[in-house]
Amino acid sequence: MSKSNSSKYEKYGRKWYEEHKEYHREYYREYDKNLKRNAIYLLMDHSGKILYVGKTSNLYRRIKNHVNHNSNLKLNKQIFNELKLHWEYAYADAVNSNEELLYIESYLINKFGRDNELLNEYEPYQNKFKKIDGLRRMQLEEIAEDLVFKKYNMSLIKNKLN
User: Of the candidates 114, 111, 135, 110, which has an alpha carbon nearest to the alpha carbon of residue 124?
Assistant: First the structure.
């Protein structure tokens, strides 16, 4: 490509960027806002068996950490594909604090842990959360029961699996 053609493309690119700058800023603001929401996530096998329950305030970053060995889950591409694992998530926007999100996570670990061999440790959660009163606990358990889980789009991080 000649020098004059490349400078034409650079000018066009800068002009296009300037014309669409605000749109891109708003898009990434919205994208960032959705990433930084409280969520509960599940690691499941192909039959729907729940293997792990987790909580996060940034879903993309947390799942990426799991698949990059920055967690207690030891996953690699071979294990992930052989077991046909997938992630499901539900946003928990009605939760006011990290402690409440932890309460929901513990509630679900105890609920699902009865029937499954979870990778999480089963532990009694009722006495751990002294700051959450009885009424709020009931509300959080109702929130946990009403969570609607969606399949996580692994194409966002598939190339990160080792």
Answer: 110
